[in-house]
Design goal:
Blueprint lengths: L11 H8 L16 H9 L2 E7 L5 E7 L6 E4 L2 E3 L10 H8 L2 E7 L6 E7 L6 H18 L1
Antiparallel strand pairs: 1-2, 1-5, 3-4, 5-6
């Protein structure tokens, strides 16, 4: 099969001519901080995908989950996302050390909605966060028996 560059999109104006401009409400989804609706959605979500990129631009998307509320909303700019023991490959965490820009997509199964945001991130662990994570892991373990 022969390929042609006639079908390639190579500029934003060309892309806009195909896709069109966003509707009136779409730009309102772009926010600098978490609002009440975003915070509520995150607190109800039992699942997210964390997208990271390493220093060379290689991508990783890592599923994270727990019960609703497994992600703690610390404030309008800070989320505490537990990293449970899994395969211990730590690709996402290593990527954050190299490139702090991450993308998050939160999902509530059984609904048609999702919520996503791009953040600059840091890795940290406080005693309070560690205690909360231990409590959540213990609760999840008991809940799943």
């Amino acid at each position: 099969m022969e390929t042609s560059s006639d079908y390639r999109v190579s500029s934003t104006p060309q892309l806009r001519s195909i896709i069109g401009d966003p509707g009136e409400l779409a730009p309102k989804k772009v926010m600098g901080a978490l609002d009440e609706m975003a915070t509520d959605f995150i607190r109800r979500s039992p699942f997210l995908v964390l997208a990271t990129t390493d220093a060379e631009g290689n991508l990783d998307a890592s599923p994270k989950g727990g019960g609703p509320g497994f992600v703690a909303v610390e404030d309008e700019l800070t989320l505490a996302i537990p990293d449970r023991k899994g395969n211990k490959l730590i690709f996402g965490l290593q990527n954050i050390l190299a490139n702090p820009h991450v993308g998050l997509i939160f999902v509530i199964p059984g609904t048609d909605e999702s919520w996503g945001k791009y953040f600059a991130s840091k890795i940290g662990l406080s005693q309070d966060a560690a205690a909360k994570l231990d409590e959540m892991v213990e609760h999840d373990y008991k809940h799943n028996l």
